[in-house]
Queue: 4 jobs
Job 1
Amino acid sequence: MTIDLNSMPRKDLEKLRADVDKAILLAKSRELKEARKAAEQAVAEFGFSLADVTEVAAGAAKSKLRAAVSVPRYRHPENPELTWTGKGRKPEWFKSALASGVQPEEMEI
């Protein structure tokens, strides 16, 4: 089926575009339902529901965010509660220790 768009009046082209947009939305909705059904069948083979799997995925994403927290690399020479990861701006206690002659290696954890 070949349509000569160049010879069609604007009104017919706009109608065609509206019809195509509607058909695309319906196809997308139909394909989404099919994909959901296939996903439900796939997880059911393992004894889970789609909600179980998506909850696990959401929990994994949250745990990755928590795992991204850096561990301290340096500790204050006199106050072990003060630490620094070595990333970002240097804390004042680190700068002061360097100014007084303490080497970074001496403060490593």
Note: The CA atoms of residues 30 and 47 lie 26 Å apart.
Job 2
Amino acid sequence: MLLSRPSTYAIRALLYLAKQNSSDPILAPTIAREEQLPAPFLAKLLRTLSEAKILTSNRGPGGGYRLAKPADQISLQEISELFEGLTLANECLLGYGKCSSTTPCPVHSLWGPRKEYMQDFLASTTIAGLLALDSKRIAPQIDEPRRGRRRKNV
């Protein structure tokens, strides 16, 4: 898994809020229930997203969470940096510190192009983009068990 559990849960919560397309705030327990996420853990993530100005939060009656900015302005890079400090900029896959073409590590020639691809993917993929893909997704077909008589092997 490339992204940690906090990042993936945060992305799922943001997708849920974006799907609602409502100006009404949504309670954390509602998001947790609908997305099947652990409520106490999600509450901490939502608080972090609020502190980062990705969400707005209101307490009390009529309170809850909303997106603080349009879904097309929230990138996966922003989420990964918030929860993991994952920038990929000059980080070495093997932990040697800065890694570049002038100071390469043993896997630099393999990891470098993939790292650039991941950087581009995280920076260019937004919550709105994921939401658009999700609306086009077709539910997987589940194979039903076959009914009828079993054949005996002779």
Note: The beta strands are 55-58, 64-67.
Job 3
Amino acid sequence: MNLERRLSPLLPPWAGWKTQAAQWAAVSAVVFLVCGSLFGEHFLRALRELYYFSSYKTLIPGRTVPPFPRLFHPTLWVVPVAAALALLDALKHYLGYFQGSRSIYLMRRLPQRWELARRCLAFPLAGLSASLTAYALTALFCLIWYWVQTPAGCLPPDIWAGIGG
């Protein structure tokens, strides 16, 4: 079945599905890159603090890296930003029905009660879920990086300390 025919009921008539998909793919890629680089900056700084440098680098005995949540915490601001972008995208779709001959009155009179909501919210919610999936994958990759790159004996006793519970 043609992808355009399947996705067209989920978007306003003037919005192209390729443009919307590319927009949310870009947002997801930015989420992945920003979160990865923020974690990388904090993690590399924590790794540098494990050593003292003289003529060669020597591990300081008893020193550990901070728990994983403390290093990954600075990336949390990305989630509300992605949610705000989804809200703005939904608002843009809704306000588009007030432009020119695009009738909001006609959309409200359609026999399918949720047609307007579906056309305004489907792609923003799908894009938000793609961004949150990118965030979760970033967290997983960063956790693996944290686990593998931390020298033996330098992991904290509880790597999840700080989450609460």
Note: The helical segments are 3-7, 17-48, 68-72, 78-95, 104-109, 115-149.
Job 4
Amino acid sequence: MYQIQVSAEYIAYLEHLKDYLLNNFGKDVKNQVIKAEQAKFENLKHFPYMGKDANSLSKFLQGYWVIIDKHEYLFYQVDEDKMIISVELAFNAKEDVIKKLHKHFN
């Protein structure tokens, strides 16, 4: 089974998401979304290539994978030798993901 490492960018995204959900939808919705995020990570530990090759979205994403769902894009890399999945970035699906990616990589 793979281990998950998360970047500072992902942690900031998650904290912002928690605050947004709590302030706009309440504690129950926030908890449901966080449980879904945890379940996604548990699946990823067992199936590291469950995402899509992110290179199809942008040339900057060579070596990245992306999980796209109704609410977010989650970008990660897989280190086969160390059996580590590095979660790098996450964006809300309503954002201009390509613009944010170009900003991140430039």
Note: The longest helix spans residues 27-46.
